[in-house]
């Protein structure tokens, strides 16, 4: 059974004013409109709710029983609207969901997670991967609040801003002979390579760009995660080509070295995405501003 919330506003006004005309005046409505709403309420509750005694509308026993719940519900609704308009992160209990591509989560999530959790201890944050083909629909439905991914083709309904500009580098085990002297394209192509991709098939980003230049390399292993790939090449002579931001992070954990990619490929622009229907929403604005600020040097 569907209920019009406006009916409860009328119910509370009649209960408070004890008079149809005064309730209409308080709500800035016409008397017939209030009477019509009361008729709907009586039908919904199957009770008169208010009985006329002279100039007064006296509540029935049922009306007296439900007025407390109605007032509490209206108060909670008002509080929710007020909080949504003002948004105080230190007291908010909002749930926020960030879509992070699997290859980016380890590099980007730690940069803003600690600050978010410190400034908003009662909020709940979730990082999950959304298929790129579903990104716009998930943003529009509110299933995710923001997304962080490479530059993607999106409609004008999705707003986005560049977070960082990254580039591909070559990663190998420490003391790999290939890094003795300058790594040129011929030496790079002479080696066996590992690819890290969440896609089950098709060329990786770097192989797609190399293919456009008519260049092909030998890929011996394809895995899902960058950390797995880095651990593999840390113990043999295969090479791995990944974003520099990720390479530097994994170099702190594993015995690997980094060298420039010996061919110029397009930069990797990482963007933050949100839907235009939350462009002015205080909570969403706060969230994306924190994420953007976390990418800045010395933030």
From TrEMBL:
Keyword field contains Hydrolase: no
GO MF annotations, alphabetized: DNA binding; DNA-binding transcription factor activity
Q: Which InterPro entries match?
A: LysR-type_TF, LysR_HTH_N, LysR_subst-bd, WH-like_DNA-bd_sf, WH_DNA-bd_sf, YidZ_PBP2
Q: What is this protein called?
A: LysR family transcriptional regulator
The record's similarity note reads: Belongs to the LysR transcriptional regulatory family.
Instruction: Provide the HTH lysR-type domain boundaries.
Output: 3-60
Cross-referenced PROSITE patterns, in alphabetical order? Answer: HTH_LYSR (PS50931)
**Which branch of life, at top level?**
Bacteria
Which keywords does UniProt give here? DNA-binding, Transcription, Transcription regulation
